[in-house]
Request: fold
Amino acid sequence: MSLLSVSNLIGIKDLLVSDIEEILKTATHFKEVLQRPIKKVPSLRDLTIANLFFENSTRTRVSFELAQKRLGADVINFSASTSSVKKGETLVDTVKNILAMKVDMVVMRHSSPGACVFLSRHVGVPVINAGDGAHEHPTQALLDAYSIKEKTGELKGLNVAIVGDILHSRVALSNIFCLKKLGANVRVCGPPTLIPKHISELGVQVSHHLTETLEWCDVANMLRIQLERQDIKYFPSLREYTMLYGLNGEILNRLRKKIIIMHPGPINRGVEITSEVADGPHSIILDQVENGVAVRMAVMYLLAGKRDNQAN
Reply:
């Protein structure tokens, strides 16, 4: 079995280009499995995986759980809202109690940036970051890269725009790291208040003009406005944001070329993107959802291989 250079998937920043390529290649194998009448393989049938979600999630949690079951693993789902965390139990105590049940891998989402790094230093099993605050969301970036490559054949030299709430987005940061490592050109676009001050130091272009950015790019990844992470007002109103940065069919039709439209979800229809665009021929949003299962299968399979190798 091919192995990754890391024992945990905390962030794209930690991965080598060869790691990313191996994950995408393995995901292609698992996507073929998912097209079969019997969509399961027994690759992880002896493993127990705990999904620890300290923050609300539907798509990511369900995608991981489905990927685990497709690999034959036993699954424990943990929700902070119904746990002893509400009684004051610490993160490490919670996880140690779960590990005492002989869990072999942990998938965690947490509202605090760095929570997965902290956890990985206290437990002896692979940890996969399913999103930590506004820091990183590595499996989302991997499935986005896979979806683009599936559609275009190549990421190197491609122009990819990330539009919207860059400041609060863990998806944006992971995508920037992943796309840059794979040779794509990246531009972020949004209101000045939602663009981090020093983001250009990551090697990305910065724009505040949507139409100009859409004319430049081959792929546009439209991000959700994350009102739940905004402690102050970053723009006058959602209506004004939509007028300046919302994507609709009329704008797409005026472009001199066809571009690919993506969205990590959940979609605020009528705000950052209209239903006409989200459900239209330019969109690969449902492909992203489907590919998410295959990519997460690949990540867990490869990390389990790393663990087995170390045990031997």
User: Anything to note?
Assistant: Residues 166 and 172 are 6 Å apart (CA to CA). The chain has two domains: 12-136+292-311, 138-288. The mean pLDDT is 90. The first helix runs from residue 17 to 34.
